[in-house]
Every structure is written in structure tokens, then in C-alpha cells.
């Protein structure tokens, strides 16, 4: 890696489309990835015809900013940006034109919308935190559920007005799971996270902490929503009543930073 690279050049490697193509190379991860493509008029039309509901995400923008949910309607298509009003487009090409006019300098991906599990009628996903320790080994640090806010299409708590809760509570309530089934899902989430971090060692971006946004659909299947290799929020875990995960994240962060200066 070029030591003269700027931070901006390094962060450019975290584009969603680049990461998606990278993780597709690993069979243990690829089966968890939703169908995804670079946004063009043709891919948008094809995805809407195939999947009826899609998410459109800026490839280099994170924290839920500008995410669009679009779906088939009786007389065209409807779409929402983050948590705004429902808008109408007459066709897939009209929808593409509107997005391009709003954000002319951005590249986007289009992704099949997963039929997510719901808690009290709201979608949720799961943030799994992975941290390097002082020996630079990856450790599972904790997981928390992010529930979407009213009318929001993103789970980012600050941007979407949602809230956090425990994985046990959310999965048990949404899927009516037994305690053992909840344990099995959590085990799968953690193993998937470990597989992603192992693969990420080969990606041209150094990370010492990662927030993985995973999800469980209504049938109990696990999916990868996004891999955040840079500067994931610790504060989400402080919102839980039980501070066990938050304290563990702090210990691992301190353990790494005491011995290592590199953060990117």
C-alpha cells in the first residue's frame, strides 16, 4: 500500500460496489449477499421487475444518508428518501432520471430489498461489532438491534429516528423463536462476522474495528446489509441498558490503541 496516499484515497476503497464485488469471491460470504448491481437505467428497470422492491444507495456515502426505497405501484413506482414523503415516478427510467438530477455527482448501487423481520411493525437490522485487540487479533465485541423509526427506510438510529434493543428480544418477538433457535441465529451471525473479517484481511484497506450491519428476514435467513470497515459507532451500544458490550468495546479499543498507532 502506498504510504503517500491521502486519507480520502484510502476511504475511496470503501465504496459499496467495490466491497460487494470483493466479498462475492468468498463462498462462505457470498450466499449472504443480496442481489446487487451498479445503478443504471437498465439495472434499475430489471431489479424492479424482478424484485418489486429495491434499495438504492450511494456507493461512497454511509450512515444511512440518502438511501432510497422504491417499489412497484399501480401506475408506476413510488419511492422514499430516508424518511421523507412518498414520491411518484411514472417509470423506472423516470425514477432513474429523478435520482440522477438530485445527486448528479454520485454513483449508486441498486439492491434487492430483503423482507426483513419486524418488531412492532418496524424493520430492524443487527449491528455486530468486531475489534482488534493488542495482538491485532479480531474479537467479537457485541451485537445490538437497530429498529427503524416511524416512516423511515433506514435503520441508522440518529438519521432514521429509531431505537436500539437486544438481539434476543427482537428475534424472539419477531420470529417467535425458542431460546435455542435464538442462540443458533446469534451463533450464525458471529461466525459470519468472523468469516468477513478473515476475508477482509485480503482487502486493500486496513481496519482495526468494524461494524457489520446484518439482518434476519421473516423466514429466519441471515443477510449481509453493509460492512463498515472504518469508524463504526460505539455509542449505539451505550444506548442499551446492559453496558456489557459497550465496556468490552472500550477495553478492546484501549488494548489495541495502547500498542498500535495505525488506525487506517
TrEMBL record:
It comes from the Bacteria. InterPro entries: YheC/D. This is YheC/YheD family protein.
Amino acid at each position: 500500500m502506498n504510504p503517500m496516499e491521502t486519507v480520502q484515497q484510502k476511504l475511496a476503497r470503501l465504496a459499496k460496489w467495490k466491497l460487494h464485488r470483493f466479498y462475492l469471491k468468498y463462498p462462505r460470504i457470498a450466499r449472504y449477499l443480496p442481489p446487487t448491481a451498479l445503478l443504471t437505467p437498465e439495472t434499475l428497470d430489471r431489479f424492479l421487475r424482478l424484485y418489486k422492491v429495491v434499495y438504492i444507495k450511494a456507493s461512497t456515502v454511509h450512515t444511512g444518508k440518502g438511501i432510497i426505497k422504491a417499489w412497484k405501484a399501480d401506475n408506476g413506482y413510488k419511492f422514499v428518501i430516508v424518511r421523507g414523503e412518498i414520491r411518484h415516478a411514472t417509470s423506472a427510467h423516470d425514477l432513474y432520471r429523478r435520482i440522477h438530477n438530485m445527486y448528479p455527482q454520485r454513483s449508486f448501487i441498486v439492491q434487492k430489498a430483503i423482507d426483513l423481520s419486524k418488531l412492532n411493525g418496524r424493520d430492524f437490522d443487527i449491528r455486530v461489532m468486531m475489534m482488534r485487540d493488542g495482538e491485532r487479533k479480531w474479537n467479537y465485541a457485541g451485537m445490538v438491534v437497530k429498529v427503524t423509526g416511524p416512516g423511515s427506510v433506514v435503520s441508522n438510529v440518529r438519521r432514521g429516528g429509531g431505537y436500539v434493543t437486544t438481539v434476543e428480544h427482537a428475534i424472539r418477538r419477531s420470529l417467535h423463536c425458542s431460546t435455542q433457535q435464538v442462540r443458533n441465529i446469534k451463533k450464525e451471525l458471529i461466525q459470519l462476522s468472523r468469516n468477513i473479517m478473515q476475508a477482509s484481511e485480503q482487502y486493500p484497506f486496513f481496519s482495526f474495528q468494524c461494524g457489520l450491519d446484518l439482518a434476519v428476514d421473516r423466514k429466519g435467513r441471515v443477510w449481509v446489509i453493509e460492512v463498515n470497515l472504518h469508524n463504526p459507532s460505539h455509542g449505539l451500544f451505550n444506548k442499551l441498558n446492559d453496558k456489557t458490550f459497550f465496556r468490552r468495546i472500550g477495553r478492546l479499543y484501549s488494548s489495541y490503541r495502547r500498542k498500535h498507532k495505525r488506525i487506517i
